[in-house]
Design goal:
Two copies of one chain form a homodimer. Chain A is an all-alpha fold. Chain A has a single domain, classed as Farnesyl Diphosphate Synthase (Orthogonal Bundle). The first copy, chain A, has a two-stranded antiparallel ribbon. In chain A, strand 1 and strand 2 form a beta hairpin. The radius of gyration of chain A is 18 Å and the shape is globular. Chains A and B meet through helix 2, helix 6, helix 7, helix 8 and helix 9 of A and helix 2, helix 6, helix 7, helix 8 and helix 9 of B.
């Protein structure tokens, strides 16, 4: 299979669906809607959505059924980016090559755009009759025990010397939990068997961490064009801990590769419908080579 | 019935339940949990929770069943207070007589405490198997078409001259939608009949607006002890539009009283199990006399 064209096709599918799901009340202030659209339509990789779709299809489910879940995950991810970029957090001016939300709409509106996206994601899940266990997993992966908890750890860690265990704990919460929830949610939308779910859970955890390590490597090595950020090495400048700094560049690559192998190994019970998941795992790390 | 002791009993019930629902993962950073608890346990009136409980009981439902919904509503309300107080929004230093969340924990952690509460509210709703239509109504009343949308209007209105229609639109979204959702959610948890739901919808809308007008009056007239804010008249100081300033004090009171009568009239099909709702409507406005 051609992973690049697969990712591109899925990305377009998600983007079309996302635009259709922003059906707010006519009373919603246009400026708020604009702020939400600005970040949501900034053109990310849609990796969480695609993982949910690929996981659903690996378990024999149909794309149509998982699409609202895929879009809700992307709304939640975008909410987290808007808030992470705020001056009170990472204070970033650029994201995906464009000024960050608060730079365009102001800090207050950016807080609200994030809040609105988070609430709207759960509206979409409820509106489309998503099973309670799927909503529960997504909310858990998002909140104080997941992404928001990880961001809090990250905030507290700034300027401090971390060891590799501390760093892994941050990543596990901040990135890993929602990525793992994306994978298992897709599977649950296809009524996956317990054995399938178990394999996908392991896959999600390994891929989530691999993804973060690859991001850390890109942040050190990549061009601003690839990272979409102001300048590469910005994590180092703010003395944020990252894998290359703690482990070294080559050992970080080795670790990412090992995680990809782990992820693929945990898909052994899947036939060729699991191939997109296998290729996504490879692709995530290949970006950083 | 003694409305004050009714409210006190319900408030204690909600507070006990709330503490029990903050069961995050052991990996959740303690400081984030502390920030969440600080605001959640600051002792509000719990009016949204109590409306949901009273509405459920008016329709013959049991308190036990509506308790998770009541607590989720309170988490969502608290999230909105934390974010509204931020320097990028209303920039308030005091809330309920104590320093605001960001004054104690910093702006970044306050943003995350709010985010975490919002996500955790939906986790609680999903975890306890809340029907999709209830979650949908709560998410709609919270997001860009509800409370968050109203706060965005409020933010844009600062320093501008508003007319009474503008002000009512802000309040309808910012306070009205979630209060109305509280009332109807409680009814739905009791499997209310369509006629009951219709009456309660009208009740919720009228009470929501009455509540806001009463708050505006208190803000002009009340002592800092009653309002818990730094100084009374702070809305005026920041040239925020409010009912007393636009309509005058006495006409504002008249309007609030008329809304209470409307609210009570829409409960005509309810027997004495609707009395708490009637008394709550009266109590809300009596605060401001």
């Amino acid at each position: 299979m051609n992973i690049k064209s697969y990712l591109e096709k899925k990305r377009e599918r998600v983007n079309r669906a996302l635009a259709g799901y922003l059906d707010f009340s006519p009373e919603t202030p246009p400026r708020l809607k604009e702020a939400i659209q600005y970040s949501l339509e900034a053109g990310g990789k849609r990796i969480r959505s695609i993982l949910a779709m690929a996981s659903c299809e690996a378990c024999g489910g149909e794309e149509e059924k998982v699409l609202p879940v895929a879009c809700a995950l992307e709304m939640i991810h975008t909410f987290s980016l808007i808030h992470d970029d705020l001056p009170a957090m990472d204070n970033d001016d650029l994201r995906r090559g464009r000024p960050t939300n608060h730079k365009v709409f102001g800090d207050g509106m950016a807080v609200l755009a994030g809040d609105g996206l988070l609430a709207h994601a759960f509206w979409l899940l409820a509106k489309t009759g998503t099973p309670a266990e799927v909503m529960e997993a997504i909310a858990w992966g998002t909140g104080p025990s997941g992404m928001v908890g990880g961001q809090a750890l990250d905030l507290q860690a700034e300027g401090k010397k971390l060891n590799i265990q501390d760093l892994e704990r941050i990543h596990r919460l901040k990135t890993g939990r929602l990525i793992a929830a994306s994978v298992t949610s897709g599977a649950r939308m296809a009524n996956a068997a317990p054995g399938q779910l178990e394999g996908l859970q392991k896959y999600g955890q390994a891929v989530g961490l691999a993804f973060q390590i690859a991001d850390d490597i890109l942040n050190v090595e990549g061009s601003p064009k690839e990272t979409g950020k102001q300048k590469t090495g910005s994590d180092q400048k703010r003395s944020k801990a990252a894998y290359p700094g703690l482990l070294g560049l080559e050992p970080s690559r080795t670790k990412a590769n090992r995680l990809v192998e782990e992820a693929i190994a945990s898909l052994s019970i899947f036939d060729d419908r699991g191939d997109p998941l296998r290729e996504i795992a490879r692709f995530i790390v290949a970006r950083s080579h």
